[in-house]
Amino acid sequence: MDEIFGIPAPLLFGQLLLGLINGAFYAMLSLGLAVIFGLLNIINFTHGAQFMMGAFAAWMLLEYLGIGYWWALLLAPIIVGITGVILERLMISRLYKLDHLYGLLLTFGLALIIEGIFRNQFGSSGMPYRIPPELAGAWDLGFMFLPVYRGWGVIAALVLCLATWLLIEKTRLGAYLRAATENAALVQAFGVNVPRMVTLTYGAGVALAAIGGVLAAPIYSVNPQMGTNLIIVVFAVVVIGGMGSILGSIITGFGLGIIEGLTKVFWPEASATVIFVIMAIVLLARPAGLFGRA
Amino acid sequence: MPLSRRQLLAAGTAAAALGGLPPARAQANTIRLGVLTDMSGPYRDSTGPGSVVCTQQAVAEFASHGFQVEVLQADHQNKPDVGASIARQWYDQGVDAVIDVPTSSVALAITQIAKEKNKVFLNSGAAVTELTGAQCNPNFVHWTYDTFMLSKGLAGALTKAGGSTWYFVTADYAFGHALQRDATRFIEEAGGKVLGAARYPFPSTTDFSSFLLQAQASRAKVLGLANASGDTVNCIKQGREFGLHKSMRFAALLMGLVDVHSLGLETGQGLLLTESFYWGLNDRTRAFGKRVQPKMPNRAMPAMVHAGCYGVTLHYLKAVADMGVAAAKASGADAVARMKAMPTDDDAFGPGRIREDGRKLHPSYLFEVKSPAESKEPWDYYKLVATTPAEEAFRPLSEGGCPLVRS
Amino acid sequence: MANSATTITDTAMRERVTPGEGIWGFSRAQLAGVLVLIAFLAVAPFVLYPVFVMKLLCFALFACAFNLLIGYVGLLSFGHAAYFGMGAYITGYAAKAWGVTPVAAIIMGGLVAALLGVIGGWIAIRRQGIYFAMITLALAQMVYFFCVQAPFTGGEDGIQAIPRGSFLGIADLSSDMAMYWFTAAIFLAGFLLIHRIIHSPFGQVLKAIRENEPRATSLGYRTDDYKLMAFVLSAALAGVAGATKSLVFGIATLTDVHWSMSGEVVLMTLVGGLGTVFGPVIGAAVIVTMQNYLAEMGAWVTVIQGVIFVACVLAFRRGIVGEIANWLKVKL
Hints:
The structure holds 3 protein chains of 3 kinds. By secondary structure, chain A is mostly helical. In chain A, 71% of the residues lie in helices and 3% in strands. Chain A is globular and about 65 Å long. The N and C termini of chain A lie far apart (49 Å). The mean pLDDT of chain A is 85. Chain B has 2 domains: 30-145 and 284-362, Rossmann fold; 148-275 and 364-393, Response regulator (Rossmann fold, 3-Layer(aba) Sandwich), CATH 3.40.50.2300. Chains in contact: A-B, A-C, B-C. Chains B and C meet through helix 1, strand 2, helix 3 and helix 4 of B and helix 1, helix 2, helix 5 and helix 11 of C.
């Protein structure tokens, strides 16, 4: 068995593949955040809690209504997206005229509330949620077993990323949205209902977080803390990628997955901190992020 | 001007009213117990409200022996300073014994305070062996379990049963390292070998696939999980996903009934773990379980730490009755000494005793998680594989380094 | 930064007092407030539980140090726990392992925190707004990781049984009352020091930078140096607060460097009133009291903290002291 840097080649390829899979996951999660910040200038700290709500929605649909995974992929984001719309209408929209940091503080508080309520209700141990039978099993790739579900996760993430990017960059709706972030009054004057568009966009970003939650439910423990662990990493991805750039978040998400995967092999204890080191370095060199507009 | 001063004074008085607890009333005939536990964090289900329920159960069963018993509760949020200030305040205001306290760092802080104030600290939830080692003191009793018991029960028995090579996935903090170190010792004593270990950052890891892959590549026979609660659950789920269970046995060094419940039997079947209590073990434990179940949160069956609160409270109250309330309140060290002098016996743990260093001795059990087909009723999760007798289950006195032990 | 948006410090009360006016730069309303504060410090240990008041004072000092940065320079640091916690660890280790006297130990803690502030500040000052916040958070996470790994911190057990020692050989601080007077003195000194800094020429330049940085630069001020200085002072005082706390409780643990601690100090300052003199003190009092009082109620503390955050941001942006001051038309 030949070795690269002291690690057997099959293991290294396996880790790289895993890194890519995780990267797809990070990219999809940061997508929602990039949409919300990049286009709406809202720093949505609630993103992690909304991700968690997506996972719980999937679990609740199964537990109380007997609705399985495939329907949950559609229903859970809609349900959570609606809660996002309500939040935006009731609270977040009042802060648009103020410093962005107030939005951060508000959504931080909302995250605490949501997490606390779920914890009181469901305890902290986590709920069982099984991989749907159609996606169970693993492919033998020779150098590792790749679970079918992980493969599905990458495909789903890529499809969502592509769809979102196309929507924002290539369609008329996306053009209106991008114009509205530059000059809302002018776009409104053209007859486009800007506040409604903003609300729906926020809802869409939240729905993206929720669908990430549904995709995560079978493989991660469905517990109220699952969002908190991820939120800071996802923020770092968006910041590194550039807060205005959808493409930046996608590429950074994948890149980070790979770098983190390699770190886990060579220096596992540091794998949680490597992202912050990268973030600090990137922000010093290119303050708007790798792909961001200043 | 006068308005603002009055306003600020009013605000100050309000703060005072909120901030101070009522001064200790002279309640000579009431024993006050404080259950200090994790109500809002990761250990809420294995300790938390269940611990309070079991403590209250012990109080109810003990009934009247000529004195009243009052039970308080608080959430230490797994923060040593929050726990320490609550314990300090409680002791200063008339609480005689603090009970439970999961999370080793909080327990270490409180055992100092109990000694300083000559009160009693009865621990059920923490696992660190220093509590009966270098940090032992005469005001402390360690019930339920510790890392030595977990490691010996699991690692030793499993290695002898054929799991000769191990690979660890370890949470990178002192507790994880302690679990791995203790387990390694027993593996090697039983003739096994540790092929390697992957240490992952704690507590921020949710995806263990890389580390599990490294374990698989090592071709070890046993996957040792030196972590707890949510992390263990994730490792097992993801381990099955990657097919590790086909070639390796999963050994969870710290895993409880509550975690198995959240895993589900389909994913958890075949898992090996060590506990010192299981409600379905024998008739006495079953009777205890059924008594307490209606009052437990979500009607769950009591787990190890919950049962420990019950056992230790019952024994403390017996000691108080034996020596008289006044003497028990006056000196925590005397009350604990009396607890050590009297043999213990309760429905949850059976007969046992408390050693000079504060360590309670009872047998430890190696359990295997049942498959869904084998489980006949809710919470029927375990089958017994092996028992380690009480005198062998815990670290020998000579190795502890406890200053209370005269060699 | 934000073009037409109101900056986070616009809602803070603007200081209309020029240096030199009033006693030590305090307006009359503020002087009244200081007198009440001193009266409270004198009376509190006899009415309330002394250890509780000491905890309050340590966090009040921490919040005041944080407020220096956000209220007067306009920079939101999301990683201030790093300085608080490192101050606690260094002092704890010095007092326990080296037997250093409490005063020296606290000074050491403050100096190390200041040093960390120099490094952190130098890296973070180059950016503003959300980027500044994210960099401070990233740096704090790295400090956290260091504290988890470094042997001297004791990992997740922390440093336990830190001795209080004796004050200059005169008073034994293991008595709660003696420790209380020591803590109260440190708090008062820190509080007055911060106020003095704000009402000095240095503070005036900071205010100018906050209002219009390009203009301050065009006037010849090296704004980055001023901001860095303010950052270091804020970090040093946060370190002193942490150092004192570790002596009061005898423990220094990972909770002190965790990002939730950073979030708590933001909450305290927000609740009390950003950019006001007494705001952080009142805010710390409210939050610490709430945590203490609600501990017996178990799991609702997080939810209530979240509700307070939300309520403050939506309706009470001026914070408690800010609202009172606005209503009375004075500066507090």
